[in-house]
């Protein structure tokens, strides 16, 4: 209690200094947001001390990883063009496969490429007659594995060693798509890329979108409700400010501490905002209650902060401890969830207890200054009218 009273006195005396330090601290920590890395590799979220995982890592280190990208080449059955291929073994399609395969093989990460084009090596080797192509493929064992039953689609299988880097995976998938665009394709032939690396790229995009979307929706709704509850835009903002600070610090520290954003932690922003809202409400309500009793700023803050601050600290601490218990889980993704949620609640708790009172005082002083200026201009106006 004495610590909180002394803190209240410090906040009253140095409220503007606290505000300036908060701005600088938020900018410094917030810069870490650009370092946040996305984790879409599920194997990274598995316990690395399991024997089966250790064995897999040893095999990957010795023989290299095997990331598989599959390129599906299929005919558009709705196409009505006369010169469009009717069979995926059409010479024009096979030449496209050969050209695409040769382009993809130039990529340093590619270890092998397999497709019906592999049997011809160069586009010039592809016969102009589809019947001749059929005869060549029929003589090659297991060549039918590349085609579906009605020969309307074929498959190209690309093996590459991409490692665990999300950036490398993203660059590789983008390069494959560029190679596909660079080769000439017959009319009414669709080329689709799939496999584990492309799926990881899609997951990356989804994680980024979901994080921004959920935080935005939660922030808008919470701010609207706070303004509605407090019946004041400025008071709603005062309660909301510690949430913004806490969330910014959390995401920034995740970047600086190299804590990944994964499928388990993508929703932490909305969760932190929801869990931390009550702290600011309690503090502002208690301060307003003391002010309504006729106390000045200093007296109201010294009375409000110790009385409600101890309860807020107790509630926040128990919540933090509960989330830290998730660090004992065997799954890294659960550990990351507990780590980030505990960090988020701590940041909001710190912002509420240390920063929010100073902002409340500054807001009141600013309003008082504005009212004094308005009153001064009003008196000058009345005096001018009287003199006239």
What share of the residues does DSSP label as strand, in percent?
5-15%
Overall average pLDDT: 87
Which value, in Å, is the CA radius of gyration? 32 Å
- Spatial order of strands in the largest sheet: 2-3-1-4
Order of helices and strands: HHHEHEHEHEHHHHH
Overview features:
Alpha-Beta Plaits, 11 helices, elongated, 2 domains, 4-stranded antiparallel β-sheet, 388 residues, alpha+beta, 64% helix, Multidrug efflux transporter AcrB transmembrane fold
Task: Explain the layout of strands and helices.
Blueprint: H1 2-13, H2 15-30, H3 51-63, E1 67-75, H4 91-104, E2 110-114, H5 130-138, E3 153-160, H6 166-182, E4 189-195, H7 196-230, H8 233-256, H9 268-292, H10 297-324, H11 332-387
Antiparallel strand pairs: 1-3, 1-4, 2-3
Helix pairs in contact: 1-10, 1-11, 2-8, 2-11, 6-7, 7-8, 7-9, 8-9, 8-11, 9-10, 9-11, 10-11
Offer a concise description of the structure.
The protein is an alpha+beta fold. The protein is built from 11 helices and 4 strands. It has a 4-stranded antiparallel sheet.
Structure description:
This protein is an alpha+beta fold and 388 residues long. Helices cover 64% and strands 7% of the residues. It has 11 helices and 4 strands. A 4-stranded antiparallel β-sheet has the order 2-3-1-4. 30% of the residues are buried.
């Amino acid at each position: 209690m004495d610590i909180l009273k002394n803190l209240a006195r410090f906040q009253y005396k140095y409220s503007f200094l606290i505000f300036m330090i908060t701005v600088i601290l938020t900018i410094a920590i917030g810069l870490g947001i650009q370092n946040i890395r996305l984790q879409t590799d599920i194997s990274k979220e598995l316990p690395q001390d399991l024997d089966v995982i250790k064995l897999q890592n040893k095999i990957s280190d010795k023989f290299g990883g095997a990331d598989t990208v599959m390129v599906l080449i299929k005919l558009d059955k709705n196409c009505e063009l006369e010169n469009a291929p009717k069979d995926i073994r059409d010479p024009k399609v096979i030449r496209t496969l050969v050209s695409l395969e040769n382009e993809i093989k130039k990529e340093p990460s590619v270890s092998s490429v397999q497709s019906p084009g592999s049997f011809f090596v160069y586009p010039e080797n592809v016969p102009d007659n589809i019947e001749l192509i059929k005869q060549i493929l029929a003589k090659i064992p297991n060549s039918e594995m590349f085609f579906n039953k009605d020969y309307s689609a074929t498959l190209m299988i690309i093996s590459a060693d991409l490692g665990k880097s999300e950036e490398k995976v993203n660059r590789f998938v983008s390069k494959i798509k560029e190679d596909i665009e660079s080769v000439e394709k017959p009319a009414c032939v669709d080329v689709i890329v799939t496999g584990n690396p492309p799926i990881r790229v899609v997951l990356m995009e989804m994680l980024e979108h979901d994080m921004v979307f959920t935080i935005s929706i939660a922030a808008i709704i919470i701010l609207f409700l706070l303004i509605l509850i407090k019946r004041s835009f400025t008071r709603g903002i005062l309660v909301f400010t510690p949430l913004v600070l806490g969330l910014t610090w959390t995401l920034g520290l995740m970047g600086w501490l190299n804590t990944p954003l994964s499928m388990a932690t993508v929703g932490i922003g909305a969760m932190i905002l929801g869990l931390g809202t009550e702290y600011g409400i309690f503090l502002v309500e208690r301060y307003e209650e003391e002010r309504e009793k006729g106390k000045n700023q200093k007296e109201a803050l010294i009375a409000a902060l110790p009385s409600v601050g101890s309860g807020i600290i107790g509630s926040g601490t128990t919540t933090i401890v509960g989330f830290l218990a998730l660090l004992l889980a065997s799954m890294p993704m659960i550990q990351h969830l507990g780590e980030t949620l505990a960090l988020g609640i701590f940041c909001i708790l710190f912002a509420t207890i240390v920063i929010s009172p100073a902002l409340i005082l500054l807001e009141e002083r600013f309003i008082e200054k504005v009212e004094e200026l308005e009153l001064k201009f009003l008196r000058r106006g009345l005096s001018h009218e009287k003199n006239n």
